[in-house]
Amino acid sequence: MTTFPRSALMGTLLTMILPLTNAAPASLSDFQALAAKHHARLELATYPKTVDEVRAQTDAAIREADAALAIAVAQPAAQRTFASTFAAVDAITAQVSDLNSQLGTVAQSNLDAAVRDAANDATVKLSGWAVGVTYREDLYQVLQAVAAAKPALGAEEQRLVDFTMRDYRRAGLSLPSAERAEVEKLQKELAALNTEFAVNINQARAPIDFTAEELAGVPASFLESPGVKQPDGKYRVMANVTWHAIAIAENARSAEVRRRVAVARSNLAREKNVAVLQKLVALRGEIARRLGYASWADYQIETRMAKNGATAVKFEEDLVRGLQPKFAQEMETLRQLKAQDTGKPDAPLESWDVSYYTNQLMKERYAVDREALRAFFPYQATLEGMFAIYQKIFGLKFTEVHAPYVWAEGVQLYVVQDSADGEVLGAFYLDMFPREGKFNHFACFQQKLGGVLADGRYDLPVEALLCNFPAPSADKPSLLKHDDVVTLFHEFGHVMHGILSRSRFVALTGFAVPQDFVEAPSQMLENWVWDKAVLDTFAADYRDPTKKIPAETIAALQAARQATEGYATRRQLSFGLIDLALHARPATDTQAVDVVKVGNDTLARVTLAPPADTAFVAYFGHLAGYDAGYYGYLWAKVLALDMASAFKTAPGGFLDEQVGRRLRREIYAAAHTRDVNVSVEKFLGRAPAQGAFLDYVGIKR
Questions:
Q1: Contact at 8 Å (CB) between 202 and 440?
Q2: Facing residues of 417 across strands?
Q3: At 473, phi and psi to the nearest 5?
Q4: What interhelical angle do 155-171 and 113-134 show, nearest 10?
Q5: Do 413 and 31 touch, CB atoms closer than 8 A?
Q6: Residues 6 or more apart from 318 whose CB is under 8 A from it?
Q7: Contact in structure between 370 and 362 (CB atoms under 8 Å)
Q8: What phi and psi, each to the nearest 5 degrees, are found at residue 378?
Q9: Whether pLDDT at 15 is above 60
Q10: Which of 51, 279, 319, 585: CA 20 to 30 A from 450?
Q11: Rounded distance, CA 558 to CA 696, Å?
Q12: Contact of 438 with 212, CB cutoff 8 Å
C-alpha cells in the first residue's frame, strides 16, 4: 500500500496550528456579515442575566409560539400547504426548543444560584408546553389532513411528514380524548420529574477532608489544585467532582480512603433521587401501557436502530457472555496484584480497588505512568492541537471571536468556517474548567439548531462545550490525563456533529439521528488519541516541547488499554443493563420496583459488587433523558470503531483529508435526512461489520 511519510503529514499539520492564545478575538459582526453573503444567519442566544429575564424570555417564547401556531391552524383548508403547516410548525417549535436548550445551559452554568433555579423552573415550563403542543387536537387535525392529501413532496419533506405523524401516533393522538388527556398529563409529569432528577444530581455535594498521610500516593498535581488544601492543613476531596474522584480511585494507597470516596460518590443525590427514580420508572411504565407498548423500552427504542427492547437486551447480554473469559482473566490479574500488595494471598478484589490496581498494572507491566503522561498534555496546547487536526481532516477554520456575552470568566466563543471558500458554518462556546454550581461532567449542549428560515436563509447552529478539566495551578498549566484527552476529542466530536449537519428542517438535524447512533460520530474520534502520528502533532512535554511521547509508550498505552478493555466494556454493559432492567419490565407490571436493588444486583452480576449500602442509580444521570437508551453507547461504539477503520487503512491514516471530507459529507452533513444505515454504508463503501470492535477489545477471531 502506498503511504505518505508521517513526517510530511506532521509538518503540514503543525503549520496549521493557529496562535489562538496570542491572537486577539476577532469581531463577531464581521462573520455575521460574511454569513449573510452566503445567504445564512449567524445569531447567538440572548442569555438571561436575571431571574426576571429568565421568566420574561420564557413567557414571551410561549406567547409568540402560541400565536404563530394559531395562524397555522386558522388557515382555510384550501390554502394549507406543506410549507404553511409541517414546515411552519417545525420552525415554530424549534424556537422554543432552542430557548429550552439555552436555559438548560444557564441552569447548568450560571454563577447565580437564583438564576440557575429560575432556569430549571423555566425548562420544566417549556417542556410542559412542548408536551401540550403534541396533544393539541386542532393542530393534529390540520397536519393529518395535509398528510392525507398526499401532496407531491421531496424526500426530505416527506420524511418530515412521516416522522411527524409517527410521533403523533406515539403520543396517543389516536386514543379516545379522555385517555389522550391522561397520557398528556402523565407526559408533563414525566418531563418535570426528569428535570428534578437532573437538578438533584447537579446540586449534590460530597466534601471529604483527609490528612496528607491519608492521601499518600495521590499526586501533587491534585493536592496543589485550587480549593483542595484547607486552612486547617487538611485536603478536601469533592466526591461529586469527577476528576477528584478519579484522582483518589487511581492513586490513593489507602483502600479505606478509596472506599470512603467511592461510598460518598455512589450515594450522591440518594436522599432525593431514589424516590424520584421510583416515580419515573412507574410513570414510564404507565405511559407505555396506555399507548399500547409492552414496555417503556419498546416505546423508546421503536424509533432507533435496535427497534425494540428485546433486541437491545440481547445485544448487551451477548456481549456480557462473550467478554466473560477476558473479564475474568483481567479481574484475577488485578486481584493477584492486590494479594501481592497486601500480603494476603486470598485478598478479594473490591470495586474500589479496580482503578488503583489498574493504575499499578499500567506502571508495572506496561511502563505507563498516567500521572507522568500529564506533562505531555497541557490543556491549551492539547486544545489547539485538536483544533488543528479537525480543521485539517474536515476542511475547516476556527477563529476565536469576541463574545457579546459570556456567563462566566474564561468562557470563549469560536466561529467555524469552511477552509476552502470561507463560508460560515456555525459557532461554539467553550466552558472548560470547574466552578461552584456548574454542571460537573463533560457534555456538548446544543444552543441553536440549524435549519432553513422562512426567507430561505440557513440559520446556523451554535453549540456549547461544558467540561471540568483540572484547573491550572499557580505554577503549572492545566495538565490533562490521556483519558481527559480522549474525552476532549469525543465531546468536541459532538460539537462537530452539530455544526456540520445540514438539513432543511430542525427535526432532521444532526442530533435527531437515532439515539443508538448519536454517539458514534464522536466515539469514532476517540481513536485519534491512540495514534503516534496524531499525538506527535501536539503532545509535548510542557517543560521541554522538543520531547514527544515515545513510540514504545504509546504502544504500551494501547496494550494497557486492551489489557483492561474487558472490564471497561463490562462496566458500560452494566450501566446499560441497569437501564434496561428498569425499563424493559412489562408495562402491565405495576408492582413497585426496588430501583436500588436492581442497580446494585446488576453491577454485582456484570462487574463487581458496589460498596455496601450505596445507591449508584440515584446519581446515574442518564436515567433521566437517556432512559432505555444507554445501551446505545456500545451499539454506537461498534459502528464507531468500524468507521474509524476507514481512516486506519487510508494512505494518510487518521490525518487523511479525503476520508475526513467523506465523513463530513456522508455522516455529519447528512444528519437525519436519510436512514443512518444508508449514511454508514455510503461512508464505509460496504455493510457495517464487528471485526474492528472485536480487535479493539482484544478478542481473537
A1: yes
A2: 397, 424
A3: -100, -175
A4: 100
A5: no
A6: none
A7: yes
A8: -60, 140
A9: no
A10: 51
A11: 9
A12: no
409-427 residue pLDDT tens = 999 999 999 999 999 999 9
Helices 113-134 & 177-203 angle (0-180, nearest 10): 160
CA 349, 353, 354: angle at the middle one, nearest 5?
90
Distance between CA 481 and CA 47 in Å, rounded?
33
Identify the CA nearest to 363 among candidates 374, 371, 353.
371
Q: What is the DSSP letter of 655?
A: G
DSSP label at 641?
A: H
Coil/strand/helix, residue 23:
coil
Gap between the Cα atoms of 677 and 506, Å rounded:
20
Hey, what long-range contacts does 646-653 have (CB within 8 A, 24 or more apart)? 646/683, 646/684, 647/527, 648/527, 649/1, 651/1, 651/2, 651/3, 651/4, 652/3, 652/4, 652/9, 653/3, 653/6, 653/9, 653/531, 653/533, 653/534
Which three-class secondary structure state does DSSP give residue 418? strand
Please check whether residue 266 is in contact with residue 617, taking contact to mean a CB–CB distance below 8 angstroms.
no
The residue annotated as part of the active site, out of 316, 491, 519, 666, is 491
Per the CB < 8 A criterion, the answer to whether 331 and 357 are in contact is no
Reading the block at residue 311, the C-alpha cell is 433486541
Which pLDDT score is estimated for 701? 66
Nine-digit cell string for 284: 414510564
Residue 491 known to be catalytic: yes
Do the Cβ atoms of 688 and 642 come closer than 8 Å? yes
CATH superfamily of 51-201: Endopeptidase. Chain P; domain 1 (1.20.1050.40)
pTM score above 0.90: no
Q: Are strands 235-238 and 207-210 parallel, antiparallel or unpaired?
A: antiparallel
Q: CA dist 168 to 109, 165, 173, 190, 595, Å?
A: 34, 5, 6, 17, 31
405 contacts: CB under 8 Å, gap ≥ 6: 46, 47, 49
Instruction: Please write down the HEC assignment for all residues of 560-595.
Output: HHHHCHHHHHHHHHHHHHHHHHHHCCCCCCCCCCCH
Q: Are 212 and 218 in contact (CB under 8 A)?
A: no
Residues comprising the chain, all counted? 701
> Cα 616–245–109 angle (5° rounding)?
85
The percent of the chain in helix, strand and coil, each rounded to the nearest 5, is 60, 10, 35
Over residues 122-157, the pLDDT tens digits come to 999 999 999 899 999 999 999 999 999 999 999 999
Where exactly does CATH 1.20.1050.40 map onto the chain?
51-201
Distance CA 507, CA 89 (A): 10
Residue with cell 406515539: 170
What gap in Å lies between CA 468 and CA 507, rounded to an integer?
Answer: 30
Count the Cβ atoms, other than its own, within 10 Å of residue 311. Answer: 18
- Residue-wise pLDDT for 33-75, tens only, equals 999 999 999 999 999 999 999 999 999 999 999 999 999 999 9
